[in-house]
Specification:
By secondary structure, the protein is of the alpha+beta class. The strands form four sheets. Strands 6-7-8-3-9-10 form a six-stranded mixed β-sheet, sandwiched between helices. A five-stranded antiparallel β-sheet has the order 13-12-11-14-20, with no helix packed on it. Strands 15-19-16-17-18 form a five-stranded antiparallel β-sheet. The protein starts with a strand and ends with a strand. About 30% of the residues are buried.
Amino acid sequence: MGISVLRVENLIKRYESGFALDIPHLEFQSGRIYGLVGPNGAGKTTLLNLLNLLEEPTEGEMFFEERRFTDLDPLDIRRKMTMVMENPFLFHTTVFKNITAGLKCRSVDKKMWPAMSKEALRTVGLKGFENRYAPALSRGETQRVAIARALVLKPEVLFLDEPFTNIRQRDIDLFEKLTKTINQEYQTTIIFTTHDLPQAHRLSDEVISLVDGRIIEGSIENLFEGTVEEIDGTQSVKISPKISVSVITEKRGKVNISIAPREIILSHGAIISSARNSFKGIIRKIQMEGQTVIVNISVDEEVEFTALITETSFKNMGLPIDSEIYLTFKSTSVTIF
């Protein structure tokens, strides 16, 4: 077990809207990469804001290197952590002045600025960009300058809030490599948020799933909200007007359910098995991830499932886009929370 750089205990953040972030325990080990995943409104950004002292918790305690935040000078903590927002703001001046803005605030010797700026730009792949006019940069370049501006401060913890949003695939590939590079070269603990679960697993030492302000153990893919119904002793969760998922539970009322993509069996026709859940759908998207194929299937206008199959199975089945497919999974494969 490594050194805990950040830890929270019984952390709660309530808002007037009724939403509450509620995390009994969570810790981040030094030098690791963590991916926070979950749907919109799950609490990912709220958690980053609390850890980075941009917001104060309603209840609970937070620790930095096993010392309570309340026992430390907030300024000292902030100097060791930096956050890059989803839509970073760059000053209307040169890239160099943007990158060195933090150094100026921290009264770093001006003689050191050029070398520090050059190193940060080299790391993010923007060597020679010092004199470029920042507002004229592309979306991907803007994001990289924002990361360089953070790196030049040599943070122990780097927070990235949706860093891969609204950029080209080429830039996404670059950012994924950059995330690994920063972690390895600087030994920086990185905590980032994303909606892309495969990406989170590619980059992270640990993936943390948030739903409705709480950490969950189940998959956040195939995540649905519904109401538990019981007919003739059989439980199901109605997730749309037409679709009910057979489950095994003692819960009642509104619940969230998830089905791990690997638990879903795909077939060209309905199969006879003990599995209670079987639906016919249309393949909408196919994505290759190494030797695994991610298949997105629309069952009706409101419900879409994600299944994972091997590359060999995919080739043997011959699954073109817009073709019909049956998906099957057991009631015991449904996680309820």
